[in-house]
Fold this protein.
Amino acid sequence: MIRRRRSARDAVVAFACGGFVAVMVGVSFAAVPLYSWFCRTTGFGGTTQVAKTAPDQVSGRVITVRFDSNVASGLPWAFEPEQRTIDVRLGEVVTVYYAVRNESARVTTGQAGYNVTPPTIGAYFEKINCFCFTQQTLQPGEKRDMAVVFYVDPKLAKDADEDAVKNITLSYTFYPVRVPDRPVVESANPDKSGHI
């Protein structure tokens, strides 16, 4: 009788531990997409928003937007904005360009990560179009001008916590992307001797 109770209790404990492990594994797989969704929704950590259309109002408040550019090690690119700062009114749609050049003698691929500072402004910084959404592949010596179309949401003017904000920095860093080698196409139907 005691042995039967003990084995039933052991089975319940084992089941509870197994369930706990399964839940923790599930949470670990869901953590990255949930964190990404949270950052995009709230602008946490300077994550910008993605807009589909331009706003229908423009405010008189002016913000200076500074453009920063960086290249991670391992990517032989020169990368810089065509202008370092611009004054924009809240709600005004602006297009700015960054220039990138592959300084190596080989084809290279990179993708940009981005954020804005101060970090709390991410909820108000809306991108309509950006080169950071896709990988960029450059031929040896190739130079490319890439556009960023954005606006600063007029709702920023109604946020009392952000009244002191006069400057925003939009920062990009290009990281190398390793493109998998293409498989070599074999000759059509060779026989075992190697003849076609």
